[in-house]
């Protein structure tokens, strides 16, 4: 039931569109010379849905769900990591930065799973085995709340990815020092946001 709420459907659309956007960039050398334009347009549309799902959930509280507090950041992580790996594959982003992003998010997801698993563990009345309700929103009242630094980091990551995609356009020339500076900045916020959760 929670999965069918409008904000969650918009979030799911971002997850589904992410591999297609990745494919568009990797197959950049196909017969469609305007592929980067389509990719950037899809990227902007996905960004709009990211804003829209949050706006709907805040404006119409009845559409907000516990599941959505997990699904929205998960969609962001899927998008950021798939796109960063894609841009590393195309030679746009450095491997060390992409590796840092991936390791950080895998660690965050693993930690979140462990905490929720611990908090929602139940004991059966008839034996000692555990009945885990990790992703059952009816039995998992814990909500995910991102820190301010984490939100800044996500914004910078998406901005860097946007520049990387825009740089594929034939009429866009992004100075290398801009990309380098933003790479260093996002590396710093990635480390800082990780330490903030300790």
Automatic annotation (TrEMBL):
Alphabetical list of Pfam families matching this protein: CDP-OH_P_transf (PF01066)
Keyword vocabulary terms for this entry: Lipid biosynthesis, Lipid metabolism, Membrane, Phospholipid biosynthesis, Phospholipid metabolism, Transferase, Transmembrane, Transmembrane helix
Coiled-coil region list: none
UniProt subcellular location: Membrane
GO cellular component: membrane; mitochondrion
Transmembrane regions listed in the UniProt entry: 6-26, 38-58, 78-103
Gene Ontology MF, one: cardiolipin synthase (CMP-forming)
One GO process term, biological-process aspect: cardiolipin biosynthetic process
Chief site of localization: membrane
Membrane topology summary: Multi-pass membrane protein
Family matches, as PANTHER family: CARDIOLIPIN SYNTHASE (CMP-FORMING), CDP-DIACYLGLYCEROL--GLYCEROL-3-PHOSPHATE 3-PHOSPHATIDYLTRANSFERASE-RELATED
Protein name in the entry: Cdp-alcohol phosphatidyl transferase
Taxonomic source organism: Thalassiosira pseudonana (Marine diatom)
């Amino acid at each position: 039931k929670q999965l069918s709420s409008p904000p969650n459907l918009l979030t799911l659309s971002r997850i589904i569109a992410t591999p297609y956007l990745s494919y568009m960039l990797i197959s950049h050398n196909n017969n469609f010379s305007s592929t980067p334009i389509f990719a950037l347009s899809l990227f902007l549309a996905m960004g709009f849905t990211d804003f829209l799902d949050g706006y709907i959930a805040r404006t119409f509280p009845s559409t907000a769900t516990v599941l959505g507090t997990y699904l929205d950041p998960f969609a962001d992580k899927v998008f950021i990591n798939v796109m960063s790996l894609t841009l590393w594959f195309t030679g746009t982003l450095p491997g060390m930065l992409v590796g840092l992003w991936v390791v950080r998010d895998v660690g965050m997801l693993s930690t979140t799973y462990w905490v929720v698993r611990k908090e929602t563990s139940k004991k059966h009345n008839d034996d000692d085995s555990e009945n885990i309700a990790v992703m059952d929103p009816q039995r998992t009242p814990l909500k995910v709340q991102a820190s301010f630094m984490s939100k800044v980091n996500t914004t910078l990551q998406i901005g860097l990815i946007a520049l990387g995609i825009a740089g594929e356009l034939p009429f866009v020339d992004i100075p290398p020092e801009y990309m380098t500076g933003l790479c260093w900045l996002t590396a710093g916020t990635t480390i800082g946001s990780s330490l903030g959760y300790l």
